[in-house]
Amino acid sequence: MHKLLSLLAYALLSIANIFAQSQAQLTHYGDSLYRQLQQIENSEERAHALLELSFFWSDYDTEKALHYVSDSQKLLGDKANTSYYQGLLSFYRAAIQFNIDPAKAKELYMQADAYLRRDVPAKNKISGTRYRARLWGSYGALLQREGKEHEYVQVLINQVIPMAKSIKDSTLWGNNLQNVAMALMNLQEYSKAEEYYDNALVLLEGKQEAGEQRFTLYVNAARNALLQQDHIRARTLLDSAAHTATLVPASSYLPVYHDVEGSYWQKQVNFDQANFHFEKALIGAKAQNNSDMVASILFSQSAAFKTANQPAQAMAKLREILPYIEKNPSLKNKQTVYYHLATTAAQLGAYEESVKWFEKYKIVLDTLLTDKGAALTLELEKKYQTAEKENELLRVKAANQQQQFAIQRTRTLAGIFLLTTIVLAMLSFIWYISARSKKRLAAQREKLNLFNAMLQGQERERSRIARDLHDGLGGMLAAVKLKLSAVANREAKAQPQTDSSMDLYTLINQMDHSVNELRRIARNMMPESLLYMGLEASLRDLCNAMDQPQLQIDFQATNLRTDYSQSFLIAVYRIVQELLTNAVKHSGATQIWVQCSEADGYFYITVEDNGKGFDPSMDDSKREGIGLSNIRNRVEILNGHLEIDATIGKGASFHIQFELAE
């Protein structure tokens, strides 16, 4: 795989001019990559390289991208039928459908996720998680295209970023911090977006393999700076983007870079330079057949012409946008374009055309539950009537228009009243659902509090019984043993060995076993090593104590501190003890692995075995001998997360995560 990366890096550096991205250059670049990956001897690595090459072509040539996926599948042979590679093949097919058929792409992304959550080999665990993070990011981007901006942010924060953090992939992590920043920017949260951009830059700065991610980061952060009127920061970021683009000369994000450059020069009142970059952006976007990008760039160019007091050119660009926004379901885009068409037509004196666009604009506004625009439409209508210079006809038309507006206003008010009623009904329903949810949550919290109190009471009682057994009964048995030993010694000195003296020694040995058993019970109820030597020592003692000739227990600890709270220590100890007890009693395993670690403010517990496994979808009550309710409750009390990965016949893994308080 290192050879593959070096070949790809060499190919990226081989194209000198980053701003001239013709179809011929793209073909030459892709063919060059294909020839170089043919030198890779390992078939599995070559199959991976073919998939990445298909990902590159997915923005430019669908047929070629599908062909490379097919070649990769053939090269993998029987491996292509495994869950891991089925997931990868679905992921790359989804990338090809991303712009062509978004619904099909979403279906393929979820199919890939289902495969990658199955029994993935240990060597592919990290890469499988990385692919899952990538596919969820792409799935969220499709939600964003549907106007579901908040859902997109939730996918990034709840799915993608935790996966990137779990595998410590700073490039993936930083790239998705950038995605959150872009979503916040679309929601006009520019200050928050800047914080996420800065955090992403810290993670991606200096990483040679993250050239594409840093390039998009600089471009998007520059756009955010322009929206905040911070032109100095925008210029610095755009210069960094231009430098980074030399590492990714075939990036599909180059049109966006030119679009932001154009907006920057528009702000600097350098319209020739602005138009130069807008034209470069349009060429790149059209080469990619990216209609959304083309429409966005055309709109930016029209705004620049309007700022330069060139309304005719602005109108021409707005008309070019119409075919794109008419096919796009976004009403907000239609509203914006219709509005600018109307105002620009009015600026040109084309009042009749202006009225037509304002009518379209007002229809969209009505759909979006707003009544803005009526006054502007009336004003433009009056200008149009004045231009006709027929006073009598104008009075008739004005009367008719007033009547129409009155009727339309009445209809609009009735519609608003109806919609208000519907909204109030929905709000009432939402309040009702929320109240029910709060009630259920309160009941669950009360149940957890009760369970926590019961646990604390049990631990106190265990501690008391352990002290009584160890200090009380243990001391008494030890004293009895000493006295019996003294009697045995006296008899041995007084007379030769007899049957009664042998019975006495047997009794002493039994007393020894009783004392040892009593200490074992006391230690299980409340191990002294947990209170005096720390968590790592007590867990190691626990694993050693449960180790058997036919069952090996391997314990590993990483970065464990000695200052955890007593309640946390006891909870972790009991969880591990319960999991080990279940594994010993029910799994039939010959090997158990226990891992405890702390990293980045989180505490992790993993217990795995190679036993007979079980079906995790079955209710606790149906799993004979395996009760997880106590463990689940302990985890919930500490606001932790429990994940079970088990398959019948293939062992079981329990992964627990706690967020540690600052």
Question: What would you say this structure looks like, in words?
Answer:
This protein has 662 residues and is mostly helical. The chain has a domain of 127 residues: 2-Layer Sandwich (Heat Shock Protein 90), CATH 3.30.565. The protein is built from 25 helices and 5 strands. A 5-stranded mixed β-sheet has the order 1-2-3-5-4, with helices on one face. Strand 4 and strand 5 form a beta hairpin. Helix 8 packs antiparallel against helix 9. The relative contact order is 0.03. InterPro entries: HATPase_C_sf (IPR036890), HATPase_dom (IPR003594), His_kinase_dom (IPR005467), Sensor_HK_TwoCompSys (IPR050482), Sig_transdc_His_kin_sub3_dim/P (IPR011712), TPR-like_helical_dom_sf (IPR011990). One of its GO terms (cellular component) is membrane.
Per-chain topology:
Elements: H1 2-13, H2 23-37, H3 43-57, H4 62-76, H5 83-97, H6 102-116, H7 125-145, H8 149-166, H9 170-186, H10 190-204, H11 211-227, H12 231-244, H13 254-267, H14 271-287, H15 291-307, H16 311-327, H17 331-347, H18 351-367, H19 374-388, H20 391-494, H21 499-525, H22 528-532, H23 535-546, E1 552-558, H24 566-587, E2 591-599, E3 602-609, H25 629-637, E4 641-646, E5 652-659
Parallel strand pairs: 1-2
Antiparallel strand pairs: 2-3, 3-5, 4-5
Helix pairs in contact: 1-2, 2-3, 3-4, 3-5, 4-5, 5-6, 5-7, 6-7, 7-8, 7-9, 8-9, 9-10, 9-11, 10-11, 11-12, 11-13, 12-13, 13-14, 13-15, 14-15, 15-16, 16-17, 17-18, 18-19, 19-20, 20-21, 20-25, 23-24, 24-25
